[in-house]
Amino acid sequence: MKLKLTPLYILSFLFLTFFVMELHEWAHTAAAALVGGGWGPRGFDHWGFESNATVSNGQRAVATLAGPLVNILLLWVGWGKMGNRDSLTDQSFGCSLVLACLPMAMLKAAVTGGGDVTIGLKLLFTSVDATHHHLIATCGLIIVIIACVPPLIRLFILLPSWLAKFVFFPIFLVLPSYLHHLIVHDLLNGWLTRFENDESLAYAWVIFWTAAIFGGWLFTRRKMENLLVDRELPL
Q: pLDDT by residue (tens digit) across 57-83?
């Protein structure tokens, strides 16, 4: 088995990464609308409750945890795909999906005591004395480790060569989160500020962006399915 890394694969992977992160944000947004009774403000990588909504800490926790739940579910879909030893197509997609969920960003946030999981837990357990907040942060870290590390271990073991394990794996584990931050947080959100007084127009642009990256992934997904190929096949 060999790793077939092409420019079109990289493009497809980035489309998938950006789409997964938009699913993450839409999960936050939909949960906030459900518990808050209305659609709140939305940006390319941020969300909020409807301005007149009165929400409890428990409801805020539900909306906060909805985003990482999407990532965790997709991580384990990828884990399952990588276990299909009869299909290199499934294994290829599983590898890509695990990395597209940005597990390293989730782990990094949890290690520093932040991230949606830890914040959501703190909102759920606001009655806990502040001196025990480190315990909640530790629980958040443990949850993220349990969610992220097994798929990453399976991915590392599945990769077919030392070059794939020690070049492809770390680059695709770390670099996409920085690229996503640069493009989405810095560039797109900076551009979206011109519509900060028109929420409907902001929503329209975010919906267009979500549809565009999903369409881009659909158009290029076949290249993603060929990440892992038989050695006997020509590259």
A: 999 999 999 999 999 999 999 999 999
List the one residue out of 31, 30, 50 whose CA is nearest residue 40.
50
Amino acid (one-letter) located at 191: W
> Domain for residue 83, yes or no?
yes
Q: Residue 50: phi, psi to the nearest 5?
A: -55, 140
Residue recorded with tokens 């909102």: 123
Q: Does some domain include residue 234?
A: no
Q: CA dihedral defined by 175, 181, 183, 189, rounded to 10 degrees?
A: 170
pTM: 0.92
**Cα–Cα distance between 115 and 121 in angstroms, integer?**
10
Question: How many structural domains comprise the chain?
Answer: 1
Rounded to whole angstroms, how far apart are CA atoms 65 and 131? 23
Cα-based distances in Å from 99 to 17, 29, 136, 156: 8, 23, 27, 11
